[in-house]
Each structure stands twice: as C-alpha cells, then as structure tokens.
Specification:
The protein has helices spanning about 10-20, 55-65, 75-85, 95-100, 105-110, 125-135, 160-170, 230-245, 280-285, 290-295, 330, 365-375, and strands at about 5, 25-30, 45, 65-70, 90, 120-125, 140-145, 155, 180-185, 190-200, 205, 210-215, 220-225, 250-260, 265-270, 310-315, 320, 325, 335-340, 345, 350-360, 375. It has about 375 residues and is α+β, with helices and mostly antiparallel strands. Strands 10, 11, 12, 13, 14, 15, 16, 19 and 21 form a nine-stranded antiparallel β-sheet that branches. It has a five-stranded parallel β-sheet with strand order 3-2-1-4-5, sandwiched between helices. The chain has a four-stranded antiparallel β-sheet with strand order 6-9-7-8, with helices on one face. Helix 1 (about 10-20) crosses helix 10 (about 290-295) and helix 6 packs across helix 7 (about 160-170). The longest helix is centred in the middle third of the chain and has 18 residues, at about 230-245. It binds adenosine-5'-diphosphate (ADP) and magnesium ion.
Length: about 375
C-alpha cells in the first residue's frame, strides 16, 4: 500500500484522496486549517502552513511517504527540491512544483522550448511597468509572478491605469519578490484547459479540451469537449507535450491555452488536477483525479471516454462558518445532474463551496441552472 502525503487539502485534494483510496492508498492530508475538505476523507491529517519550512520538513520526516503530492501552488518548494535529493518522490517532480509556483520561471521554460506565448515582460517597479506596457502596447494584463486565482491581477487599458495596477499587484502578491509579469491582452475566441497525463510507462495522453469562463480570476463554469479545429488541437497537444516532458515525472497536468481566430497560445500550467477539470467527474469514465492517481501509481489507463458535460461553481456570498445548503434537492431533481459539496467549514464572499455537474444534451445550461438553485446559508 502506497503512503501519500498530500500538500493542500481543498476540493481538488478531496476528490484525489477518494480516487487514491479506492486504489488502496493510505493518505495523510495537510493544510493550514483543520477540517479542510481532503482531511474529511483521508486516513490522517496534519495542520501547518505549506509555506513554513520546518513543519513541512517535519511532516515528511514523520510520515515517510512513498509519494509527496502537491495540491496547491503555495508550498515551500525548496524543501521539495531537497527531499527529492534525499530519495523522496515528489509528484510530478520537485522541479515542476518549484517552476510552476512562479509565473516567470515556467514562462521562461516555455519560451526556451519555443512554445508560443503572449508578448510579455517583467517589471519590478511602477516605472518599469509603464515602460514595458508601452513597449507591448495597451491594453495589458498585469499579474504578480507569485499569486494564484487572479489575486493581484488586473488589466491596464492606458498609461493612467499603471500605478493602480502596480499597487493592486503588490497588495495581491505572495512571497518576497516584488515582481510582476505584464502581458499582451489576448482577445481570445475561447480558452481551454488541456488535461495532459504523463504515464510512468506508456505515452502521454490527452483528455478532450475543456472550455471555461473566468471571472475575478476564478473559473465560473467549464464544459467538455470544447470543439476545436484539428490543426489547433494538434498545436495544443504538441505544446503541452513539450512543456510537460521538460518538467518530467508522472501525473496529470492542466495546461491552459488561449485560442484566437488565428492561433493557439500557451498561457500557464498546473502540474496537478485543475479546477476547470472538475467537469470530468461527470463527463469522463475516469475523472482527472482518477487519472492523476493511476498515473502516479504507475497503473494503466486503457481508455478515456468523454461525453458532453459541464460544471458550474456555487459561491458563498458572505463571511460565516458551518454553512448549510438550500436548493440541493431541487438541483438533483433533474436527470443527469450531480452536485459536489466540498464541506469547507467557513465561508467568505466568492469562496467556492460546491460545484454542480451535468451531462448529455445542453449540459452547460443545465449545470448552470443547477448551480443557480443552490444557496450557501450561514
Ligand atoms: N494575456 C491575457 N489576455 C487575456 N486574458 C488573460 C490573459 N492572461 C490571463 N487572462 C485571463 O485571466 C485568467 C487567469 O489568468 P492566469 O494567468 O491563468 O492566472 P491564474 O494563475 O490566477 O489562473 C485566464 O484564465 C484568462 O481568462
Ligand atoms: Mg490559470
């Protein structure tokens, strides 16, 4: 039986734990607060900040896991690089966790591999930001190099917005580097997540592309499959293959692309299941969590079958604790609709608390209608 140390215990971790436990694993779930979603289904749990070196080291030394599985970006990844050298296995690799925690590092890797990205540059002050934005051409997107879920991200339409964008980025950044990436604004037709699976034995596999819509830096709904021109899909496969091969290791990656009329542009990637990929809980024979578990355990993936499916998030509206949910029965009274309530002990405005899933015809409209019926009550 493999012992897994899960770093981060949110809703994606919870589903991963269920998949891993179905395959006989023993899971220790870690996060900064007790009662986190994945802890509710794990064998053991451990509460500490994943960014703190000492407790992270101590948890690894205490539990001696066969596999260390990051579920979040914000981890003291230097510790992972060190313990990997000592013989621990980090999924997919300590380098992947370390590079993807920083937008500039993974972006530089992509550029080094000749992968098409938006025009971009980096800035370490408001003056530098203005110069880079002028060079790229307005509008531009500005993001702290260390942040996730849209924190500190804004669009500057003109030079007059630059100071506000800089201040907003500084307020939303994590870590100790005052550095932002400034990017050409891509007026995409749609954006996709391409779930890409690197197997221990066997070829790299791809799921059907997942389309999604983001607001305030968080995904609101996603659907699968997103139709794409075969040549564009091939371009996305080739880029995902290149970047994930460079990162190495086994596991599932969520690779994000913008698709314009003319081309496919690489945006970023997560070396782990992706939030927009929650749709696969209903659209695929094996969810992204099942696929991640199989890939890291070296188990075969004989086929991935996709039917039309969609997911839509249920958000909290205010601060509170021990939430209850109304409208769940109404949502579930429709055929081919399902709901996952994450079990988060506290709420805050816009916090993702549950997801509604639907499959078959008009899946997207039905998933959104189901999500709209559910309210978080505190
Ligand atoms: N250069 C860009 N042009 C247009 N939209 C963008 C650009 N960069 C990001 N976005 C939008 O913001 C969302 C979040 O940005 P992303 O780089 O994926 O950050 P995060 O790590 O927070 O997910 C994207 O999914 C996309 O909708
Ligand atoms: Mg993203």
């Amino acid at each position: 039986m493999k012992k897994i140390l899960l770093l981060g215990s949110g809703e994606l971790g919870k589903e991963f734990v269920i998949s891993a436990k179905r395959l006989g694993c023993y899971v220790v779930a870690c996060d900064s607060y007790a009662g986190a979603p994945a802890m509710q289904v794990a064998d053991e749990s451990c509460v500490f900040s994943m960014l703190d070196e000492a407790p992270l080291r101590a948890a690894i030394a205490q539990h001696k896991p066969d596999l260390i599985v990051p579920e979040i970006e914000a981890i003291r990844t230097e510790v992972l690089l060190e313990v990997e050298k000592e013989g621990f296995e980090v999924i997919p690799s300590a380098r992947a966790a370390n590079l993807t925690m920083n937008r500039d590092r993974i972006r530089d890797v992509a550029v080094g591999l000749g992968v098409r990205t938006a025009k971009f540059n980096y800035a370490e002050s408001a003056d530098e930001l203005l110069a880079q934005a002028n060079a790229i051409g307005f509008p531009v997107v500005i993001k702290p190099v260390m942040s996730s879920s849209g924190k500190g991200q804004s669009v500057a339409k003109t030079a007059a917005d630059i100071q506000t964008s800089w201040d907003y980025a500084c307020a939303g950044m994590r870590g100790d580097r005052k550095k932002v990436i400034v990017e050409e604004f891509i007026n995409f037709e749609f954006e996709i997540t391409l779930l890409t699976i690197r197997q221990r034995k066997g070829p790299t596999l791809f799921c059907e592309p997942i389309g999604h819509v983001q607001e305030r830096g968080d995904y609101q709904y996603s659907w699968q499959p997103q139709p794409m021109l075969p040549s564009y899909l091939k371009a996305a496969h080739d880029m995902a293959d290149k970047v994930t091969a460079d990162l190495g290791g086994a596991g599932l990656f969520g690779v994000e692309f913008f698709v314009t009329k003319d081309e496919v542009i690489f945006s970023e990637l997560s070396p782990r299941p992706h939030d927009t990929g929650m749709v696969t809980m209903i659209s695929q024979n094996l969810s992204e969590f099942d696929l991640h578990a199989r890939a890291i355990l070296g188990l075969p993936i004989a086929n991935i079958v996709c039917t039309e499916g969609a997911s839509a998030v249920v958000l909290a509206t205010q601060d509170g604790s021990n939430p209850t949910y109304t409208g769940v029965a109404e949502a579930l009274s429709e055929p081919d609709v399902d709901v996952r309530i994450f079990g988060k002990p506290t709420t805050r405005p816009y916090r993702r608390m549950a997801v509604a899933l639907a499959k078959n015809a008009n899946a997207l409209a039905r998933a959104r209608a189901a999500a709209a019926k559910i309210s978080v009550v505190v």
